[in-house]
Amino acid sequence: MNWALAIAIHPSGNVIATGSDDTTVQFWDLATGAAVQCLPDYQTKVWAVAYSPDGQMLVTAGEDQMVRLWDVETQDCLKVLTGHSARVWLVRFSPDVQTVVSASDDTIKLWEMPTGHCLQTLKTYSNEVLSLAISADDKCLASSSTDGVVRIWDLETNSCIRLLPGHTHVGTSVAFSLLTASSMASATTPQSFLASGSNDGTVRLWDHRTGDCLRQLQGHGNWVQAVCFSPDGKQVLSGSHDQTMKLWAVQTGQCLQTLRGHTNRVKAVAFNPTGTLIASASDDQTIRLWHPQTGDCVAILEGHVDWVLSIGFSPCGSWLVSGSGDRMIKLWDVQSGGCRRLFQAHESRVRSVSFSPDGRWLASGSEDMTIRLWDVQTGDCLKVLVGHTGIVWSVVWRADGQRLISCGEDGTMRVWLVETGDCTQVLRSDRPYEGMNIAGVTGLTVTQMTTLKALGAVE
């Protein structure tokens, strides 16, 4: 399936232009709904399109980090503007058509028209917190962010105690595991290790106590969206936008299985509590259940009508919960594959779902900026937690079941008291050297530069 990633309406109101992940820019007649034109020789995913106010030009941008200016009538490419170092998400014309503005992950550029000269580069810092995990001993919190840095937090002091740089793109997911001495050659006593997934296409295994990266797992052909450990800690599972899951041996880093079957991006993965079943969720609107030893798909759960964005097994393993872009939360009977309960109240996509440690409650986070607490048995929404000012990307429970931690687009992590619904703590990554902007530094590794950027020392 091809997805439209951007849309712009011609000033006349008669035609729209769309940019797609199939690398095309199409023009559509609004009266008939027919595709009437297609820009030639476009060879990259198109994330942004915009018409000039007079309708004579179109500006496009995408995965290749370039901005292109087109003559609408002739379809000629007038200019190719280069200078961004990441995909370009947004483009706009100024009202007088004398300037084009483009934005990527951390840079905004202003371009003079028609020369294409870059007038100004504005540096920004975006640090959405996308994923959370709590260690098995309930003492540490791990967070992954858009700056690619994994952070370790002390849950007693609510302070960030360690930065784990290394990923070269957005950090999408983190997971802790309790590993035994036989699971990792360097371990002499049971230890908790950490896995992280990133849009750089890799999975990294960390000793979170020292900050050392123990292994880097490579093999996916696109972003790694989700990671989780098997209950015994000997395997780590990753799900990717390449539509596959990979099962890796923690001790050796070897890929043991590649699970194929989804027809779109894999957004979430989970092991059941006994390690005998894997669940995966995808943009193909399905959930699949897999046998981890054989790699066979044993069931397909259908019912959502939009992307399935989050899944989680109940502590007993009998139930699976899913959250979707259709704003619905579904409770599935793992044995029969039937949907047993529907939770409906969110006003936008459900990005995260999680069972409480005793399995009685569900927590869900949504693009509507709220967290909801649900009674699993009745399906009733018991509380609505309000405080985030952007998308809620992830929710996790503390071991006592009395507290909940959430993270979001606003760059914060919030600690909630379940009984009252009160937010008791707001955590935010410090940038102690904000604005220092050290210039002329050479010879640093990618990891060193990532650390300096996370601390605000360089742009």
Walk me through the structure.
This protein is mainly beta and 459 residues long. The chain folds into 2 domains: 4-123, YVTN repeat-like/Quinoprotein amine dehydrogenase (Methylamine Dehydrogenase, Chain H), CATH 2.130.10; 129-428, YVTN repeat-like/Quinoprotein amine dehydrogenase (Methylamine Dehydrogenase, Chain H). It is 2% helix and 52% strand. The protein has 1 helix and 40 strands. The strands form 10 sheets. Strands 1-2-3-4 form a 4-stranded antiparallel beta sheet, with no helix packed on it. A hairpin with a 3-residue loop joins strand 30 and strand 31 (328-333). The longest helix is centred in the C-terminal third of the chain and has 10 residues, at 446-455.
Secondary structure topology:
Elements: E1 4-9, E2 15-20, E3 25-29, E4 35-38, E5 46-51, E6 57-62, E7 67-71, E8 77-81, E9 88-93, E10 99-104, E11 107-112, E12 118-123, E13 129-134, E14 140-145, E15 150-154, E16 159-164, E17 171-179, E18 191-198, E19 202-207, E20 212-218, E21 224-229, E22 235-240, E23 244-249, E24 255-260, E25 266-271, E26 278-282, E27 286-290, E28 297-302, E29 308-313, E30 319-324, E31 328-333, E32 339-344, E33 350-355, E34 361-366, E35 370-375, E36 381-386, E37 392-397, E38 403-408, E39 412-417, E40 422-428, H1 446-455
Antiparallel strand pairs: 1-2, 2-3, 3-4, 5-6, 6-7, 7-8, 9-10, 10-11, 11-12, 13-14, 14-15, 15-16, 17-18, 18-19, 19-20, 21-22, 22-23, 23-24, 25-26, 26-27, 27-28, 29-30, 30-31, 31-32, 33-34, 34-35, 35-36, 37-38, 38-39, 39-40
